């Protein structure tokens, strides 16, 4: 029993550290995610961090996994609570914008930072970052396929193209919100996705107004 409690405390500590690592990487990038910076942020020693990760790359890889868990909980899960179909596709974009607007990550988006930093740097970190993007696009496509099967999107809708466009609008919103402002940027991103979905909807009235 005591061993189980120690294991649970250790897991909670690890998750707390990884949440901090994801937040820092959203600002400084994964390359800027150093043990020294993380220890300073947490008010702990670097030696305590080395007990969990033997080198920087393993910390980076675990940070990606933690960011994916966070994304699943804060973006994908809320969308899945919406009825399947075109409303669920739009709910996914809304959940993403809400996650950004809530300021959970000080840098805006962990994955956008990681993608731009490691897109031309082959290795384990790039591979895991690319897999995260591949899986995210596949998830959007699955919701689009579902909406087509339910007859709420026209049969000539291209799931791959629509997934790309929805993701691209989300990424653009991150950048513009930092430079132009959150309110106007997220409103424009919302209207853009709504307009795209309405153009492909069999019944545009299914979607909310602007």
Automatic annotation (TrEMBL):
It comes from Amycolatopsis deserti. The keyword Transcription applies. Gene3D superfamilies: Homeodomain-like, Tetracycline Repressor, domain 2. PANTHER family: HTH-TYPE TRANSCRIPTIONAL REPRESSOR NEMR, TRANSCRIPTIONAL REGULATORY PROTEIN. Keywords: DNA-binding, Transcription, Transcription regulation. Residues 34-53 bind DNA. This is TetR family transcriptional regulator. Residues 11-71 form the HTH tetR-type domain. PROSITE patterns: HTH_TETR_2. The keyword Ubl conjugation does not apply. InterPro entries: Homeodomain-like_sf, HTH_TetR, Tet_transcr_reg_TetR-rel_C_sf, TetR_C.
């Amino acid at each position: 029993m005591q061993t189980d409690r120690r294991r649970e405390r250790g897991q909670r500590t690890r998750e707390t550290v990884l949440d901090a690592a994801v937040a820092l990487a959203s600002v400084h990038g994964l390359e800027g995610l150093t043990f020294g910076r993380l220890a300073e942020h947490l008010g702990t020693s670097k030696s305590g961090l080395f007990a969990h990760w033997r080198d920087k790359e393993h910390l980076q890889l675990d940070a990606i996994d933690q960011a994916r868990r966070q994304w699943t909980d804060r973006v994908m899960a809320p969308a899945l609570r919406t009825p399947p179909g075109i409303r669920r596709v739009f709910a996914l974009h809304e959940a993403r914008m809400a996650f950004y607007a809530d300021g959970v990550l000080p840098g805006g988006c962990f994955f956008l930072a990681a993608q731009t930093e490691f897109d031309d740097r082959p290795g384990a970190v790039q591979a895991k970052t690319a897999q995260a993007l591949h899986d995210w696009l596949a998830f959007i496509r699955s919701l689009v396929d579902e909406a087509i099967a339910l007859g709420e999107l026209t049969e000539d809708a291209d799931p791959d193209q629509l997934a790309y466009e929805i993701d691209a609008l989300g990424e653009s919103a991150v950048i513009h919100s930092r430079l132009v402002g959150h309110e106007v940027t997220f409103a424009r991103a919302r209207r853009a996705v709504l307009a795209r979905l309405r153009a492909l909807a069999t019944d545009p009235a299914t979607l909310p107004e602007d």
